[in-house]
Amino acid sequence: MQIVTKRLTLRRPAPADIDAIFALHHDPEACAHNPSDLLATHADAEERFARWDEHWRRHSFGYWAIDDRESARTLGFSGLKVVRFREREVLNLFYRLDPAAWGAGYATEVATAVVAWAGEHLPDWPILARVRPENIASQKVALNSGLTRAEHLDEPGEDGPDWMFTAN
Q1: Using H for helix, E for strand and C for coil, what is the string for 93-126?
Q2: 104: number of Cβ within 10 Å
Q3: Which residues sit opposite 11 in a β-bridge?
Q4: Which of 111, 118, 135, 164 is most buried, with most CB under 10 Å away?
Q5: Residue 76 has what pLDDT?
Q6: DSSP 8-state class, residue 159
Q7: What is the spatial distance between Cα 150 and Cα 98, in angstroms, rounded to a whole number?
Q8: How far apart are CA 145 and CA 65, in angstroms?
Q9: CA distance 77 to 97
Q10: pLDDT, one tens digit for every residue, the chain (168 residues)
Q11: Is 54 strand, coil or helix?
C-alpha cells in the first residue's frame, strides 16, 4: 500500500530500509525531542523494523517510509500506530524526517496525507500526536495536518511533558 503526494511516496518499510531506520534514529539531532528513540546499534534498528513490520501484519497499516519522488531518497518515516491511551485504543501519529529535509514542508505534507488516509480508511479511530512543548515545528505540523490542541489530555511523557494534538 502506498500514499502518493505531490512530492512524496509513502510506502511500507522493507528490510532494505533498516539502514535508513538506523541512520535516522542514531542521529541525536533527529531525536532531540525524543532521546529515548535513539538507537545505539544496527541490531536495535532491526528490532525496530521487526516491531513496525509486525504492526503492519496485524493491522494492515503502520509507519511508512517517506521517499522523495524526484530523487527516490528516503527522507524519513511517518504513519500511525495503534496504542492504548487512557484505557482506549487510539492511532498515534508519528513523523520523523532526516534533519537535512527539515524546513521544506515535507513533514506537513506527509502528516496531512497520513491524517487524510486515516479519515478515509479508519474514520472511527481517534488520532493523537504527542509533541514536546519546546518542539514548535512539530506543533505546527500537527496543527497544519488537521489536528487540534487538546490541553486536557496533556501528560508526562517518557522524555518530558507531552502536549496532545487530536483528531476525531
Answers
A1: EEEEECHHHCCCCHHHHHHHHHHHHHHHHCCCCC
A2: 13
A3: 2, 65
A4: 111
A5: 98
A6: T
A7: 28
A8: 18
A9: 6
A10: 899 999 999 999 999 999 999 999 999 999 999 999 999 999 999 999 999 999 999 999 999 999 999 999 999 999 999 999 999 999 999 999 999 999 999 999 999 999 999 999 999 999 999 999 999 999 999 999 999 999 999 999 999 999 999 998
A11: helix
Q: Which amino acid is at 154?
A: D
8 with 75: CB under 8 angstroms? yes
Distance, in Å, from the CA atom of 96 to the CA atom of 64, rounded to the nearest integer, reads 11
**Residue for cell digits 479508519?**
122
3-class DSSP state of 29 = coil
| Residues 71/120, Cβ–Cβ less than 8 Å | no
Radius of gyration of the chain (CA): 15
Give the C-alpha separation, 158 to 43, whole Å. Answer: 22
Phi/psi region, residue 149 (left: phi>0; alpha: psi -120 to 50; beta: rest), is: beta
Query: Three-state SS for 75?
Result: strand
CA pair distance 65, 79, nearest whole angstrom: 9
